[in-house]
Amino acid sequence: MSGTERAVRARTRARPGEGQLLREEILLAAQTLLDEAGDESALTLRAVATRTGVSTPAVYRHFADKSALIAAVCMRVWETLGAVVREAIEAAADDPFQGLRHGAVAYMRFGLQHPVQYRLLMMGAPRPGEPGPQQEAAMACLRYLTEAVEPCVAAGVLRGDPQQIALRALATVHGCTALVIAHPYFPWPQDPDDFLDAAARTSGLGTAALGWLESEPREAAPTTAQYAEAFRDWAAALR
Amino acid sequence: MSGTERAVRARTRARPGEGQLLREEILLAAQTLLDEAGDESALTLRAVATRTGVSTPAVYRHFADKSALIAAVCMRVWETLGAVVREAIEAAADDPFQGLRHGAVAYMRFGLQHPVQYRLLMMGAPRPGEPGPQQEAAMACLRYLTEAVEPCVAAGVLRGDPQQIALRALATVHGCTALVIAHPYFPWPQDPDDFLDAAARTSGLGTAALGWLESEPREAAPTTAQYAEAFRDWAAALR
DNA sequence: CTGCGAGGTTGACGACGTCAAGTTGACAGT
DNA sequence: ACTGTCAACTTGACGTCGTCAACCTCGCAG
C-alpha cells in the first residue's frame, strides 16, 4: 500500500565530496515518515529512498544497513531530548530539588509528544556486544541527570550515591512515559501534565525519604511504623 | 539462516474437533522460539510452523494472522505475571504497605527473568481502535494493583484515589523493568534485587508523602521547605 | 580529452506475511 | 462395506521487505 509512494521532487546528483547532502536528506525523510505514519513499521528503506527521490540501494552508500539508519535517527532524538531536559533543569537552578522535578516533567512531555521516536530510543532491541554511539548518548543522558542530582545531595535534600539516585529517577520518568504510550486506554487523568507532575513529585519525595531511611542501616526491611519515624527525622533536619 | 530449521517430529493429523491440539502446539513452539533466540524477530510464522511440524498456512487455521498469534502468546504471559504479582501481594497481607512492596519486586523480577516476553507485553505497537482481550488483561493487572492499594488507603498509610496511586506505582515498576532490559550497560547495582527493592521503597514512600502533601491543596507548586513540613505531619499521623 | 573514482542505478536473491485453490482422511449415514 | 462431507491441512503463488553484485555516469584532475 505504501509501495506506490513517488518521489517528492527530482534530485540532482551530488558532486564528489558532497555525498553528505544525501545522507542528510535521507535522515530527514526517515524522520518525516515516522511522524506522518506514527508507526515505525512505515520506516522502510524503500520508502525512505523513494521519498528522497533516489533508488533503494543508494541508502547503503551512507548507512551500513537499516539498523544503522535507525541508529542515526535515534542519535538526533537523543540530542534533542538531552537539550530539552538540560534546559528545563537549568531554568530552575536556584532550587535543585525543583530543578529535578522540572527536568523530569520536560522529559516525559517530550516522550509523549514524540511517541514513535521515543519507542525507537528506549524500546528498540538491545544491541549485543560493543557500546556503540547510541549507548554513549544514553549514558550522557544519565550523566545530565546525575549532575542534576548532585546539588540536591550536597544541599542535604537527598542522600546516597547520586548516580544510583539518578538511575531510579530515570526509571520513574521512563516508566511514566512508556506506560502512557503503550497503554493509552488506562484511566489516565485528563491532563497528562497532572500525572507527570504527580509522578515527578512522588519520585523526588520517595528518594528523599529513602535516602534518610537508608542512612542508618537496618538488618531487616523496615516496617511501616519505622518509615514514619524516619520521615520525622527527615522533616526535622530540613527545617 | 533460520530457514533451514526442520521439524522436530512428524505430526499425525488431528481428528475433526481436535484442532485445538495444534493451536496449543503452535503456542508452545512460539514461546520456545522466543526463549531460545532471546529475540522477538525469531518469532516467524514459518519458523513456528516448521517447529510444529506443519506447513506455514496451517497456522492461519487457528490464528487470524501473526499479530493474533503474538496476542495469544501475550495472554499467557499476562496470566502468569498476574498470578505471580497477586501471590506476592497476598503473601504479606498483614501489612498492606509491605504487601505492595513485595508485589512490586515480584513484578520486576518476573520482567527481568523473561525480558523477551516482557517486551512483547509492554513494548508492542499500540493497537488501534477497539479494546481487545489484551487490553483487558492489562486492565486486570492494574485492577489487582488497585485492590492492593485500597487497604493502604483505608489504613491511612496512603492518601488519594487508589486507581491513580496504582497507576503511578505501575509506572514505576514498569520503568525499572523496562530500563534494565533496554539499557543493561547502565551502572546497575551488582544485585538487581537491590535496585528493585530500592525502587519499590522509593515509590511507596513517595506516594505516601505526596498523598499527605496533596490533601491540603495549594495554589503553586510547594517548595522544598514545604515538603519537609508535610513530611512531619505524615510521620506524626502514622505514629 | 581521457581516465577514474565517488555517487549513483538495475536486477536479482532469499525470507517474510498472506491468500486461493487443491488434497486428505476420519467419521455419519445408508 | 460404500460414499459423501467437512474439518484439517498442503501446494503454490503474490507482493514486500532487506540486501547484494554488477553495471553505469558524471564531474573533475592530469
From TrEMBL, chains A, B:
Every HTH tetR-type domain range: 20-81
Annotated keywords: DNA-binding, Transcription, Transcription regulation
Residue ranges for the DNA-binding region feature of this UniProt entry: 44-63
Residue ranges the record marks as coiled coil: none
InterPro entries cross-referenced by the UniProt entry: Homeodomain-like_sf, HTH-type_TetR-like_transc_reg, HTH_TetR, MT1864/Rv1816-like_C, Tet_transcr_reg_TetR-rel_C_sf
GO MF terms held by the record: DNA-binding transcription factor activity; transcription cis-regulatory region binding
UniProt superkingdom: Bacteria
Protein's recorded name: TetR/AcrR family transcriptional regulator
Origin organism lineage: Bacteria, Bacillati, Actinomycetota, Actinomycetes, Catenulisporales
